[in-house]
């Protein structure tokens, strides 16, 4: 097995007294899609947010262990958190475009990350194309993002992440608030993005995991129970808990 | 039986609230009508253009003069000065409270700021006379510091609680997901605050500013006490001024009923009303423009 692109080594995390993640060890392979599944409250979103240090500013959070992007320790003192977040993009559960125009939504990220002005337009157009949004919005780039549909807003959020050319994209249940058609579109988009990016996606939707993920990680009560290729997890799970979860016996 | 009585209560409350609504509405309309009526009586005697374009205000002289430009400019000077101080300070404080202050500090600062709003305007005016005036006099080398700047400082103090509270509520109301989105693409707290949070909170912040401006233009007692009350065209912040509100308050008490002077004061009031209305409408327009971008 080759070196994972992104990995967690011995990650434990507490919200106050409550331990939410327990000694997590996992690696995500480059240019593959990995799904994190498990019942609500099992810590999958919390784990995902560890990788771009989204817990930094949350009061009462304590974290031990290491996360690595390639060989670099994400939590090392010398690391500038904004630089990590540029390399590890994130798409959230609820589409959260800024209160700006479609164009500005993407331009903002490029601007704050110091991309030269003459390169930005090209990147914006390209990221919109990669997010399957270009055809729908090319004539109204300066319309408020708020006027887009939910699915379009989520694709805009993906475009915003993609425009920065990150190495990894973290997705936290990106389709949970969308209708089946928009979901299908985003799934296709995710599969397309795999060619260039390492993708980790949290999902509640077992079919979705099977449709798009190369690998699947099953979590339960803050621990990783099993991690394997998606077919193995869904058909030949070695752990009793995993197989009863994926067959819908609890959840 | 029970059902019937409930129906009666329902009918009664509906009528009661309707009466309240109409009552409030008719008071407002009656008030505006009275203003317009009295102002009209004034404009029979004095041309509206002369009223707003001449600087000489001498209602008791002979011949009497009714030019209120000096007052108008004084009001603007004091209000603009107050806003120049209060807007940056207010929004800065609101941003600090909403984004940077720890919970403990917030719990101490917020009530203290709200308490500021409870200080009677006479007390603030008094402060202007005994504290700020000598201070300004010392700074400028004049005999006293009762001038436009004094009024502006006091009004900014009075407008601050409103601006801070309303602006902070607006900033606090921005969902955390906005900020996370910004942090998520590598923005710093400062970038997030200035480029995401504040623009998203713009309608609320504008409303806060509008309320502050309204306060600054309409406030009477404080400016009456602290600005020196000289009706002359001011040349800067260090000149004594008399605002429109102060003029009405001072002269209304001694003016003979239904004279031109009496009507003139109503005309000043109606002009004040129009100014506030226009400022509010401009505010509403910008609030509407920002609202288009708002995400629900």
UniProtKB/TrEMBL annotation, chain A:
It comes from Mucilaginibacter aquariorum. GO terms for molecular function: ATP binding. Keywords: ATP-binding, Nucleotide-binding, Phosphate transport, Transport. The keyword Protease does not apply. Residues 6-246 form the ABC transporter domain. PROSITE patterns: ABC_TRANSPORTER_1, ABC_TRANSPORTER_2. Pfam families: ABC_tran. This is Phosphate ABC transporter ATP-binding protein PstB.
Automatic annotation (TrEMBL), chain B:
InterPro entries: MetI-like, MetI-like_sf, Phosphate_PstC, Phosphate_Transport_Permease. Part of the binding-protein-dependent transport system for phosphate; probably responsible for the translocation of the substrate across the membrane. The chain crosses the membrane at residues 21-46, 66-91, 112-132, 152-171, 192-217, 262-287. It is found in: Cell membrane. NCBIfam families: phosphate_pstC. Residues 72-283 form the ABC transmembrane type-1 domain. Belongs to the binding-protein-dependent transport system permease family. CysTW subfamily. Keywords: Cell membrane, Membrane, Phosphate transport, Transmembrane, Transmembrane helix, Transport. Gene3D superfamilies: MetI-like. This is Phosphate transport system permease protein. PANTHER family: PHOSPHATE TRANSPORT SYSTEM PERMEASE PROTEIN PST, PHOSPHATE TRANSPORT SYSTEM PERMEASE PROTEIN PSTC. It comes from the Bacteria. SUPFAM superfamilies: MetI-like (SSF161098). It is a multi-pass membrane protein. It holds the Pfam family BPD_transp_1.
């Amino acid at each position: 097995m080759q070196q994972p692109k992104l990995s967690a080594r011995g990650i434990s995390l507490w919200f106050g007294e409550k331990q939410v993640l327990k000694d997590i060890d996992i690696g995500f392979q480059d240019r593959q899609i990995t799904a994190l599944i498990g019942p609500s409250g099992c810590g999958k979103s919390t784990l995902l947010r560890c990788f771009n240090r989204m817990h930094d500013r949350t009061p009462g959070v304590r974290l031990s262990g290491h996360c690595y992007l390639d060989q670099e320790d994400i939590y090392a003192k010398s690391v500038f958190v904004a630089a990590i977040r540029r390399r590890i993009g994130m798409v959230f559960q609820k589409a959260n475009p800024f209160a700006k125009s479609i164009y500005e939504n993407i331009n903002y990220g490029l601007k704050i990350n110091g991309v030269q002005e003459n390169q930005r337009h090209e990147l914006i157009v390209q990221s919109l194309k990669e997010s399957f949004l270009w055809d729908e919005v090319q004539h109204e780039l300066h319309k408020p993002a708020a006027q887009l549909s939910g699915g379009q807003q989520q694709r805009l959020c993906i475009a915003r992440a993609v425009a920065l050319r990150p190495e990894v994209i973290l997705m936290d249940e990106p389709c949970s608030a969308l209708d089946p058609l928009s979901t299908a579109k985003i799934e296709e988009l995710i599969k397309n993005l795999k060619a260039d990016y390492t993708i980790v996606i949290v999902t509640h939707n077992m079919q979705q995991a099977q449709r798009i993920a190369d690998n699947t990680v099953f979590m339960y009560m803050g621990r990783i129970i099993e991690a394997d290729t998606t077919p193995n997890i869904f058909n030949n799970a070695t752990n009793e808990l995993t197989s009863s979860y994926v067959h819908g016996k609890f959840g | 039986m029970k059902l019937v009585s409930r129906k009666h209560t329902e009918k009664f409350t509906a009528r009661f609230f309707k009466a309240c609504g109409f009552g409030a509405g008719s008071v407002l309309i009656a008030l505006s009508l009275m203003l317009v009526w009295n102002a009209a009586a004034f404009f029979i005697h004095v041309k509206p253009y002369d009223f707003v374009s001449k600087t000489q205000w001498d209602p008791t002289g002979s011949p009497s003069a009714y030019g209120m430009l000096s007052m108008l400019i004084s009001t603007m000077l004091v209000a603009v000065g107050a806003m120049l101080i209060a807007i940056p300070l207010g929004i800065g404080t609101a941003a600090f409270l909403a984004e940077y202050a720890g919970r403990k500090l917030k719990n101490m600062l917020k009530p203290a700021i709200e308490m500021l709003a409870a200080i009677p305007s006479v007390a603030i005016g008094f402060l202007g006379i005994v504290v700020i005036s000598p201070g300004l006099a010392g700074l400028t080398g004049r005999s006293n510091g009762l001038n436009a700047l004094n009024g502006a400082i006091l009004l900014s103090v009075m407008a601050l609680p409103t601006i801070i509270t309303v602006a902070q509520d607006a900033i606090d109301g921005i969902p955390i997901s906005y900020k996370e989105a910004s942090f998520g693409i590598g923005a710093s707290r400062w970038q997030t605050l200035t480029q995401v949070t504040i623009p998203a909170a713009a309608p609320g912040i504008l409303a806060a500013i509008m309320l502050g401006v309204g306060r600054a233009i309409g406030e009477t007692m404080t400016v009456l006490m602290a600005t020196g009350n000289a009706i002359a065209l001011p040349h800067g912040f260090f000149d004594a001024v008399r605002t429109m509100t102060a003029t009405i308050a001072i002269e209304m008490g001694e003016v003979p009923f239904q004279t031109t002077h009496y009507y003139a004061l109503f005309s000043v009031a109606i002009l004040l009303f129009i100014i506030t209305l226009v400022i509010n409408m401009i505010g509403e327009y910008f609030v509407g423009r920002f609202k288009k971008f708002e995400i629900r």
